[in-house]
Amino acid sequence: MRAACLFLLVWVAAAAAAAQTVSVQTTAAPHYAGEPVEVHVVVQGFEEDPALSVVVASPPRGKLIAAGVHPSVSTSISIVNGQMRRTKEVTFTFVYQLQVAEPGPIEIGPFAVTQGSASVTSRSLRLDLETLPSSDQMTVELDFQDTPVYVGERVPIALRFRLTGRLRENLHQYSLHVPFFALTETFQFLEPPDAAGTTKIEIQTPNGPLAVMGSAREEKRGGDTYLIVEVRRIAVPLRAGSLEIPPATLDVEEGVRFRRDLFGGRRPTQIRKWRSSDRTRRLSVKQIPADRTPESFAGAVGSGFSLAVSADRTVVKVGEPIALHFELRGDGNLETAALPRLDAEGLLPPDSFRVADGEIPGRFEDGVKRFTAMVRVMDPDVNEIPALEYSWFDPTAEQFQSATSRPIALSVGDAQMIGAADVQSAERVLESPASDLEERTARAPSRAGSLVLTGADLAIERNADLLLRDASAGSRNGWALAGLYAGSVLLLVLAQFDRRRRNVDPAIVARRRRVESGLRRIRDASNLPAPEAAAEIARAMRSLLAETPGVRCPEIDALIGECDARSYAPAADRDPAPIDAAFQQRALELAQGMMESES
Q1: Does residue 568 carry a pLDDT above 60?
Q2: How far apart are the first and last CA of the chain?
Q3: What phi-psi label fits residue 164: left (phi over 0), alpha (psi between -120 and 50 degrees) or beta?
């Protein structure tokens, strides 16, 4: 009987240890709308592996977000009647955050937990979300102009919150929520250049916390001292329409009872919460009129813009690149402003200048937007970079304004494709007098070698005895005669080849050498830094163009232009590494194509 009871006790203990349970817990009430409520799902009785699966339906409102899982394993040893028993208990705690903006009752769950074939389901959790009480000891305000603005216009934003001296003294912690700063698809947010910030402010947004610099000051009002914290930013609307701005909120935890810690500081033992909310606002954003947009407009919105232009050199030849440097200043959206197409109306005449296609990248620093562009003078009669027009939209006057840069004097000479040291013109050989050509041809045999048959005795043999001699008598010399015949034929072939070689026009030979030299210079450019290699490839391509003037094409001009852009790039933008293999291979393929087309 005693053994049976012992067995029953052991079985009950084992069954209890193996029971699988799940419970749902949360922090003590009250729970407030707009504040995350932490929910714990505690699971016991399962094994460590495999991983558990938890399934729960979405709440009727708000969001339930999984925040992690915390496993723990505990082992206990018990001895009954001299027998030792080891028990292992595995506990998983799944953490969720419930976020609901509106007050009222809400029910979440049940939570279904599964591991393999085992499954257990929890009860549902019912919460009653309250509204945080407000207090006249604190305010929060998102301040900006409520008049209509235009797309691209800079809208100053001031975020302020105030605390009375008493609330500040008992302040435990605060949380500042600004959903407006998460609307990055509708607005671009910038830091004002004159913003003075000495205090780091953490702002909560739907996209996560945002740390910005702000200022704090004290101000006396009605016999009380207020702490005023202010953050300044700039919002740039990216699209037109009537845009709703969500309200900013400030949550504060105020200590009610305190105790002193080891160092004499106060620690709250009881707190109460307060909330202050700003009102929902609307911002009307208008589109910039497109029917009267000048061609020199590139998105600048504001006032007082100016454009300064400078050139890296003013003495050039036709087709040589000039680096133009632009400095854009003004009170407006310089960060997003761009340059118009340089061949647009009011800028560089397209029949006199060649400009690169595509947008010109710029960099914003120290309140100035800077651009660099490569242009080429294509007309030898050009004597200046003309005054360039830049237009912007003034939202106050609601019209376009324009400013012009100062002209830059130029000295333009005729094009010189290659230097005398790089290549000798083929035309110089072709235009040489006939007497000089004959003289060079006459001297050629003395340099070519001795494979010439002039002066050889080719007379017919008339000696009858010699001709009628028995062939068998000279059979032992047959192989020698065959060798002589074969050698004679070979000499005739070599002589013919040598004559054809010596009859080639020396100008063609020289041209071939120059072509091979140009191709070799392109191949050897891989050993040079990128800017020097680009300059060497450009010189080689120009020398090849001088040899094959009939095969010029836009691809070759584009390659030479790209080489000039790399070689004349500002020192800060130059790459000391060797030129990339793909660019060099493209140059070789174009050069070889030029030679094949000409031949």
Answers
A1: yes
A2: 115
A3: beta
DSSP state of 578: B
Please state, in angstroms and rounded to a whole number, the distance separating the CA atoms of residues 332 and 295. 19
Q: In this structure, how many other beta carbons lie within 10 angstroms of the beta carbon of residue 566?
A: 22
Helix (H) or strand (E) holding 402: strand 399-404
CB-based contacts of 567: which residues, under 8 Å, 6+ apart?
Answer: 531, 532, 534, 535, 538
Q: What is the C-alpha separation between 148 and 286, in angstroms, rounded? A: 7
Q: What's the pLDDT score for residue 283?
A: 92
Asked if 71 and 48 count as a contact pair (C-beta separation under 8 A), the reply is: yes
- Rounded to whole angstroms, the Cα distance separating 319 from 73 reads 79
What is the pLDDT confidence band of residue 262, given thresholds at 50, 70 and 90?
confident
List, in sequence order, the alpha helices (H) in 170-294: none
Could you give the strand order of the β-sheet that contains 125-130, starting from the edge strand earlier in sequence? 31-32, 125-130, 104-108
Helix H or strand E encompassing 445? helix 434-448
pLDDT(440) > 70: no
CB 378 within 8 A of CB 404: no
Q: Are 308 and 326 in contact (CB under 8 A)?
A: yes
Question: What is the pTM assigned to this prediction?
Answer: 0.56
Q: Which two tokens stand for residue 42?
A: 């505690």
SS3 of 118-171: the string is EEEECCCEEEEEECCCCCCCEEEEEECCCCCEECCCCEEEEEEEEEEHHHHHCE
State how far the Cα of 326 lies from the Cα of 231, in Å rounded to an integer. Answer: 33
Helices (H) then strands (E): counts for the chain: 10, 33
Cβ(242)–Cβ(153) under 8 Å?
no
How many residues in the chain?
A: 599
Query: What is the 8-class DSSP label of residue 456?
Result: -
Instruction: Please write the tens of the pLDDT for every residue from 570-586.
Output: 665 566 777 788 888 88
Structural domains of the chain sorted by starting position, each given as residue range(s) with its CATH number in brackets: 18-130 (2.60.40.740), 138-285 (2.60.40), 290-413 (2.60.40), 422-447+487-599 (no CATH)
Closest CA to 275 of 251, 255, 309: 251
* DSSP at 295: T
